[in-house]
Amino acid sequence: MKKICAVLCALAVALPLVSCGDDKPQGDGSGMMYNVSLPYNPKSLDPQFADDEASNTVIANLYSGLMQFDIDGDVICCNAESYSVSDDGLTYTFNLRDDNYWFFDTSDDDIIDEDEYFPVTADDYVFALQRILTPEMHSPYSAEFSCIKGGKAALAGSASPEAIGVSAPDESTLVVALEYPSADFISLMATNAAVPCNEEFFISTKGRYGLDDDSVMSNGAFFVRQWFFDPYGKNNILYMKKNFANSSDENKVFPSFLSFTIEKSKADVREMFKNEKIDCFTTLNKNSFEKNKYTITSQQSITLGLVFNSQDEVCSNMNFRKALAYSLDRASLQTELGNDVTAAYGIIPPAVKLLGRSYRDLSADSVYDIFDSGKAAEFCSAAKAELNAESFGTIRLLAATDAVDSSDLHVVTRNWQDILGFYVSVEEVTTDEFYERIESGDYQIALYPLQGKYNSGVSVLEQLAANTAAGLSGNAKASVSSLRMCANSSELVGKFAAAEKVILDELSFIPIFYKNSYLIAEKGNQDIILDSFSDSVNFRTAKHFD
């Protein structure tokens, strides 16, 4: 690290030696110290490895990539000045901005006068992408990035990660060659996984990269000044300061500080907000938080749908599933639902963006409406005949308490009772118990929350294909696998619709609701970026006005 700093010492001297500011909001909304809570200690601040909620929020504020999702969920340039795609869709060339810097905190006081700054180069992106496709690393993002030329061979161990199709012709140019055209690739480059990693610093951490405050560097809006966690103690914190080298008039970082307390659960975080100890928090349940008292941001990024236990005699019967699906009068249901959910006909939720619009605006899900009460009754009778039963008894529907308001769910069960004449009992459990019950097979029907790892219809459908509870057929999985090989976004629209139709026809996943995720903030806060797909909150553009 000292070697790098010595080489670039002229740059470091040129940077202004100023303090990070105070915690009092200024006239333009800047200068705020945000007090926030994490639901648990981040598992790692290694962006090519971490994928939990606490880590994702810190990483989103600590690093920045060539591309980013903006506050509306659209992909825009960040550290890339521009990018181009070859006519065959196989080569992406990114031109880097010249004003993005690595920062490593070495100071012991509140005045920044001994810290190291040096430019982020294309080699840092090359090394990051190579790390993702190194099999020994077991990156949770390796499958998505295996579209890079040589990626699958690297992951299989038959080729070196250094041989994959990423190169840096010069310090400000990154070239990525793909195995096949992939319209979703530019969205991948906006994820946390695609931020840079400096190889020399990585090696200097001796295997502790991202595990403590001495083993992270920042090229983002903030840097980690202190990270203290004692699993047996209290007052666990992660404290970040504004990285002024990466704040300019054109690309301004507004807050001065981020002060995270590290709690033991999401319930603890919610309690901290209720007690006015933090400025904002994310939740699936906004009950008791009214718009006139709080700033509420919502994203409809989750699809709640029915999955069936294939080992249950009734629920594995196809005519029984058809009876449930054909009896869903979603148009009527919508008039009785609260404002937390809307009736869902399709699989991909409205928050997914494509071509600058919600995918559901490009492909209306109403085409999947199969409501027919007459057919539903026929399927119900056929199921009873096949099962040699006069009735199904009481059917149990498992749901997580955070996933949906019970009143909305009872609107659906009442619909089934009115049309089909049998009762579906709702069994509400905690989120942890919900997934434990799914894993153990202790359920008949479950209301499963489906969400992508990032803002992409490809990711949403891939998560469904990987879900053993859904049990998609080989044909359905093949339709999902083909999505990464679409040459352009317009082609993706049609392929998404076709994949949804194949899955819906199988009735392995029956959509019920599109569900909101929320960011609840104290009044006066604006432009905090919620990414409900990665469960992260980015404060770079956050503004506070008294």
| CATH level-four homologous superfamily name of the largest domain | Periplasmic binding protein-like II
The portion of residues forming beta strands comes to 15-25%
Average pLDDT figure: 92
Count of structural domains: 2
The outline comes out as globular
Distance between the termini: 42 Å
CATH class of the largest domain: Alpha Beta
Question: What's the number of helices?
Answer: 18
Total strands: the figure is: 25
Q: Helix content range of the residues, please?
A: 25-40%
Q: What is the CATH-assigned architecture of the largest domain?
A: 3-Layer(aba) Sandwich
Query: What would the CATH topology of the largest domain be?
Result: D-Maltodextrin-Binding Protein, domain 2
| Poorly predicted regions | 1-21, 109-114
What labels would you give this structure?
546 residues, alpha+beta, D-Maltodextrin-Binding Protein, domain 2, Dipeptide-binding Protein, domain 3, 2 domains, 7-stranded mixed sheet, 28% helix
How would you characterize this protein structure?
By secondary structure, the protein is of the alpha+beta class. It folds into two domains: 2-288 and 523-544, Periplasmic binding protein-like II (D-Maltodextrin-Binding Protein, domain 2, 3-Layer(aba) Sandwich), CATH 3.40.190; 298-518, Dipeptide-binding Protein, Domain 3 (Dipeptide-binding Protein, domain 3), CATH 3.10.105.10. The protein contains 18 helices and 25 strands. The strands form eight sheets. Strands 13, 14, 15, 18, 19, 20 and 21 form a seven-stranded mixed sheet that branches. The protein has a four-stranded mixed sheet with strand order 1-12-11-10.
